[in-house]
Design a protein that fits this description.
One of its GO terms (molecular function) is purine nucleobase transmembrane transporter activity. The protein is an all-alpha fold. Helices cover about 55% and strands about 5% of the residues.
């Protein structure tokens, strides 16, 4: 197991194989421990709680960002916020209690953009009809999950591509952190460049340095401590020095990074049940149902494969732990997203932040879910944690997930090239799904034209065909 993901000294570390992840001689000490297997998996109640808090802090931005995107379609911002909180709570609870995996479920970034800017603005689809498309894609996803299709897909993906996908997603998370911190910005000439130092970026760099030291010293809860410390250091920005307005959407931009807008805001349930089921079944809209299905399916699959590699959470066959249950939960989450009034939910790669803190059981997901629920009523409190505070955690998660790059067979070009494409294209395209699709296509093409067609399993042909369909619909 990657030593950077190992528990702090004094706590038993999970071993490599599935059965050996259960600590020899360890006995559960409570019903909660027995249900989640906390002691058996080498974790502790305290570690699981800290991991849940860390995951929440890394992903809490979605409570504001998702409604901000969906409100562009004409949906009421408060209603979209309520739907975001509800689906994050129900989906994450189900992931923790049923699939028993330490994975957050929330409205997917990318899927919400597809919903708002392609389906509603691009095609002119009413947002109620777009919610209907979300529901039907959830029905199809549930069918795939019930038929255990993921087993054939996972087993068809070669080990080298699994390692590469984990690395690519790690780099993607790092890029998200760098962009959120505005350390890397766009440039018309060089495409991207480092930003000039400013009070916010200096604050971020100090927070990153502090978090890095804590991680290197194996301090339990290092990422959470780093988020809190960076938030405190960001309070003077916009008050005593600098301007943080660039870190917010124009509509809500303020000079101060850390803001207090009160405690209470009543939830808005007006978006629930507004989906148009029959309108979504028009022939012209069917491609969007399938695009949502493929995107959600591949995002979930890739997220669990990369998390399984990073946290050594595998079954006896080397596949992600409780994958069938996890896919059922994800399909359930997509299914109820439309009726609740939001774009599709899926497993969040930010879950790696909690796993990096030692989270190994479903209790991590349950803790994270419970932290979402109060924001039905106290959403103004979200403005207290700025983007630069969570950026160091995301960047370091990328470090934790790079261990498997050494396991790729770089000397075999027919394996190395598709793997390289996955590692590079996922962060560069800013899309997990697109990067994986290109790597799968490269794998099939190389095996086909180098005389190694027998190494392509039947399911991989189907996945490659779906990848072509997905990429041509983007």
């Amino acid at each position: 197991m990657d030593s950077s993901l190992s528990p702090p000294a004094g706590r038993a570390a999970p071993e490599a194989a599935h059965d050996s992840t259960r600590v020899a001689g360890a006995q559960p000490v409570s019903t909660l421990d027995r249900y989640f297997g906390i002691t058996a998996l080498g974790s502790t109640f305290r570690t699981e709680v800290i991991a849940g808090i860390t995951t929440f802090l890394a992903a809490m931005y979605i409570i504001v960002v998702n409604p901000a995107i969906l409100s562009k379609t004409g949906m009421a911002f408060p209603a979209a916020l309520t739907a975001t909180v509800l689906i994050s709570f129900f989906g994450s609870c189900a992931m923790g209690l049923y699939a028993r995996n330490p994975v957050l479920v929330a409205p997917g970034m990318g899927l919400n953009a597809l919903f708002a800017f392609t389906m509603v603005h691009g095609v002119g689809m009413p947002w109620q009809t777009a919610l209907g498309c979300v529901f039907w894609s959830g029905i199809l996803f549930a069918l795939l999950a019930a038929l255990n299709v993921r087993r054939f897909v996972v087993e068809a993906i070669p080990a080298n591509l699994r390692y590469a996908i984990s690395c690519g997603i790690g780099l993607f998370i790092t890029v998200i952190g760098l962009v959120n911190a505005r350390l890397v910005v766009g440039d018309p000439v060089t495409v991207v460049r480092l930003a000039h130092l400013s009070p916010p970026t200096v604050t971020f760099l100090i927070g990153l340095a502090l978090t890095t030291v804590l991680v290197a010293r194996r301090v339990n809860g290092a990422l959470m401590i780093g988020i809190i410390a960076t938030t405190l250091m960001a309070i003077p920005v916009g008050r005593l020095w600098g301007d943080g307005s660039a870190y917010f959407p124009k509509e809500i931009a303020t000079a101060t990074l850390v803001n207090f807008h009160g405690f209470f805001a009543a939830p808005d349930f007006s978006g629930i049940g507004q989906l148009d089921l029959l309108g979504a079944l028009k022939v012209a809209y069917l491609p969007f149902i399938f695009v949502m299905l493929f995107t959600a399916f591949f995002d979930t699959l890739s997220t669990f494969m990369s998390i399984a590699e990073a946290g050594n959470m595998k079954d006896r066959d080397g596949n992600p732990r409780n994958m069938r249950q996890a896919m059922i939960v994800d399909s359930f989450s997509v299914l109820i997203s439309g009726p609740l009034g939001t774009s599709p939910a899926n497993a969040y790669i930010e879950s790696a932040a909690g796993i990096a803190q030692g989270g190994r059981t479903g209790l991590t997901a349950v803790v994270c879910a419970l932290l979402f629920l109060p924001f039905l009523f106290v959403s103004p409190m979200l403005s207290l944690v700025p983007a630069i505070a969570t950026a160091p955690a995301l960047i370091l998660v990328g470090v934790f997930m790079m261990e498997s790059v050494a396991r790729i067979e770089w000397h075999r070009m027919d394996e190395a090239i598709p793997s390289f494409i996955a590692v590079v294209m996922i962060p560069i395209s800013y899309s997990i799904t697109d990067g994986i699709a290109y790597s799968f296509l490269a794998f099939v093409v190389l095996k086909l034209f180098t005389g190694r067609v027998k190494e392509i399993k039947p399911a991989m042909w189907i996945v490659a065909a779906l990848a072509v369909l997905l990429l041509t619909q983007m």
